[in-house]
Write a structure and sequence with these properties.
about 725 residues; alpha/beta; Rossmann fold; pyruvate-formate lyase- activating enzyme; eleven-stranded mixed beta sheet; three-stranded parallel beta sheet; 26 helices
């Protein structure tokens, strides 16, 4: 197996080519002889039927077990099964004691722990911090079947059940908490989830490469503490090992007070060395980059970037925003370096980002023998998330859009990983033949973004791609090195709709319409054949200020797309509509911006029903804006421009009310806001007005109160 830390530096192309094909090239574990399970077992009885005396690996998940490639536990479980391991599933265990965690016995190798397809806190609480009473990943949509901070709770109970079994945590909840992160629900900075969970190793991203390397290493008798250099993993170290070069991140941006300048070429120990340390042994070389000086060329394989410590980012929001900025700049698999962050006396060590899967590896993962249904134990119970995706096909991973409010980039990365056309068409046929009650309609061919399939950087393997640290390939402009030809996707759509038994192929994933404008033929194919009356897209705002903080394109691109959408709909003889999505209370969004958006909506005759309030998810760049009030898209310092941050619940609800200007329940609060903003001219009954005037009885009461004639105060605004 190729080392994740080669002795000599490799070019990006060599690194990728040497890694390709390795995902399924391990010698199979001896338990392969048991064959493929109809479903991964969830009980001792099922294990007995399979002839198993034990599980090699047990996956603990906060979701109901659905054996489908859209569910993380199924993908990782079936992938490990294909490596020859016996894998059991403990789904949505009760967390009041360890009984459920011992139901399958002690795993021979490790527990794999995930909160599920969603972060447990976002799953349980709304953006207004109200408790949700439903859960789409639970039978019958029942809420409360997983604990808050599920990764921590599950890890602690696994440790109590079998304290000598290694704990491997992963999934989106762990990914987004691999370093110190702002926690919206407690309004404070929390430590890396590795510290709080007491797990042994964290896998971030989709993690097939990392989980394979971990599983086979443990199967060969290696200790989990020895697995220190696997790409896509995070571990805890007592101290930094020798032979590495340290780059102090704060010297790049200079976000805070600068300490006395040190010689950038002297050897500096970051830890007190033991007395018996060999004085001839090399120690970390500490590099302090000087602004405006020529950058040194350092080997990424033996260089780490030191982030401000947990204690520092806890006490200084600007340093927190700086750490977030650096993490995102080091997220490329081509040039990302190890990140190190001190937590007390421990070092959180984030290994370099994982190498993206090649097309044949993606095919291998999605072509595994999934049952494509919920586990039989659930009987006739409805699992809404399964019903939503059972006739959809995931064609790619990753997103190079870089929207600051979205967590896809932090989890799946910016490099698009696409399946082959043959694999995708084969899955459509499986759905046709295997899904009960299939009507001939495929609900989606997509992924994080519908129209990024097959789009890659044309310079990915060149020196340009190796150096690139852009946070987005499409903002502020579409990169000239990005392939924007959608013909591969267009041809896929055409072949998919020609499959026997398929009546309709719908596209439900989000569309990057500024990118689609580069290929009108794609838009014509989409609008003519793949819209079921409505197409959902996400301009998110009408004003450039908030859009710049979101890293979203100008609303003019939406207008251009709308013209083509209407043109091709008319040519097809169809009455179809765009359904735009917008966000309220995003960092940088002023009340004046929301008013302008409300007027834009009214002008375009949009009356949004479901609207979104910004939700500060861990590790997102917009969350760093929310917490710090600064913009991490630029170099940070204490005199950086401060952003408008709607934080108070009343303020967030007001901005949301602007999106639903047409709802009578919002009239009172909007009237009050318009008066305070000096825009009373927008209150009235004419077309130019945003909201109607208050009822006459209220007007009279207000006049009496203003003149002092009233004996009682005017009624308060209803909220």
């Amino acid at each position: 197996m190729l080392s994740s830390r080669p002795d000599s530096p490799l070019s990006t192309q060599a690194l990728l080519s040497d890694q390709s094909g390795t995902l399924f090239s391990y010698p199979k574990y001896w338990a392969e002889s048991y064959g493929i399970a109809p479903y991964l077992p969830m009980s001792r009885a099922e294990m007995d039927q399979l002839g198993w005396d034990s599980c090699d690996i047990i996956i603990v998940t906060g979701d109901a077990y659905v054996d489908h490639p859209s569910f993380g536990m199924a993908v990782i479980g079936r992938f490990l099964e294909a490596q020859g391991f016996r894998v059991g599933i403990i789904a949505q265990p009760r967390w009041q004691n360890t009984a459920d965690f011992m139901a399958l016995g002690k795993p021979n190798l490790f527990f794999g722990i995930t909160a599920g397809n969603m972060d447990s806190m976002i799953n349980r609480y709304t953006a207004d911090l109200r408790l949700r009473h439903d859960d789409a990943y639970t039978p019958n949509d029942e809420g409360g079947k997983r604990p808050d901070r599920a990764v921590i709770v599950y890890s602690q109970l696994c440790r109590q059940a079998y304290n000598d079994v290694p704990l491997v945590i992963g999934g989106i909840e762990a990914s987004l908490r691999r370093i110190a992160q702002y926690d919206y629900w407690s309004d404070k900075i929390r430590k890396s989830v590795l510290i709080d969970s007491a797990a042994d190793i964290l896998l971030y991203g989709n993690a097939e490469r990392a989980i394979a390397e971990v599983a086979h290493a443990l199967a060969q008798g290696r200790k989990v503490s020895e697995l220190t250099d696997i790409r896509g993993t995070t571990i805890i170290r007592d101290k930094v090992p020798s032979g590495w070069t340290e780059v102090d991140s704060t010297r790049v941006d200079w976000p805070g007070k600068i300490d006395k300048m040190m010689n950038p070429y002297e050897y500096v120990s970051t830890q007190q060395e033991p007395e018996n340390t060999d004085p001839q042994a090399p120690r970390p070389l500490k590099i302090i980059p000087l602004p405006l000086q020529h950058k040194q060329k350092l080997d990424a394989a033996t260089t780490y970037v030191r982030l401000p410590s947990f204690e520092k980012v806890t006490n200084d929001p600007v340093l927190y925003a700086h750490a977030s900025r650096v993490l995102h700049q080091e997220a490329s698999p081509f040039n990302g370096r190890v990140l190190v962050q001190k937590h007390g006396t421990k070092e959180i060590w984030v290994n370099r980002p994982p190498i993206p899967l090649e097309t044949h590896e993606m095919d291998g993962v999605f072509d595994l023998q999934y049952a494509r249904r919920p586990h039989p134990k659930y009987g006739t119970a409805v699992i809404p998330a399964y019903d939503m995706i059972k006739t959809s096909v995931n064609i790619m991973r990753g997103c190079f859009g870089g929207c600051t409010f979205c967590s896809i980039t932090e989890h799946e990365g910016r490099v698009i990983q696409s399946r082959s056309e043959q694999s995708i068409l084969g899955e459509i046929e499986k759905i046709r033949d295997q899904v009960p009650g299939f009507t001939g309609v495929i609900s989606d061919l997509g992924g994080p973004t519908a129209n990024m399939y097959g789009l890659v950087c044309k310079e990915a393997h060149s020196e340009i791609g190796q150096r690139c640290r852009r946070l987005s390939c499409v903002f502020p402009t579409i990169c000239k090195h990005l392939k924007t030809d959608h013909s591969q996707t267009t041809e896929l759509y055409r072949k998919a709709r020609r499959i026997s038994g398929i009546k309709k192929i719908l596209i439900a994933s989000g569309l990057r319409y500024d990118l689609a404008l580069r290929d009108p033929e794609y838009i014509k194919e989409l609008v003519t054949h793949h819209v079921g009356g409505y197409l959902k897209i996400a301009p998110e705002h009408s004003e450039d200020g908030p859009l710049n903080q979101m890293m979203k394109p100008s609303i003019t691109h939406y207008d251009e797309f709308k013209k083509l959408f209407e043109k091709y709909s008319a040519e097809a003889g169809k009455k179809q509509y765009l359904i735009p999505y917008f966000i309220a209370a995003h960092p940088g969004s002023r009340d004046e911006d929301m008013l302008s958006l409300a007027l834009w909506l009214k002008k375009n005759k949009f009356k949004p029903d479901q609207v979104q309030t910004f939700y500060p998810s861990p590790m997102a760049l917009a969350t760093a804006m929310y917490h710090s009030g600064r913009n991490p898209l630029k170099k940070l310092h204490y005199k950086s421009e401060k952003l408008t941050i709607p934080k108070k619940l009343e303020h967030r609800r007001l901005q949301k009310a602007f999106l639903r200007y047409h709802d009578p329940a919002n009239f009172d609060v909007l009237r009050e806001a318009l008066v305070q903003m000096g825009r009373s001219d927008l209150i009235g009954t004419e077309e130019k007005h945003l909201v109607p005037p208050a009822p006459k009885t209220w007007q009279k009461a207000a006049i009496r109160h203003k003149t002092g004639a009233a004996r009682r105060p005017a009624p308060k605004s209803r909220r």
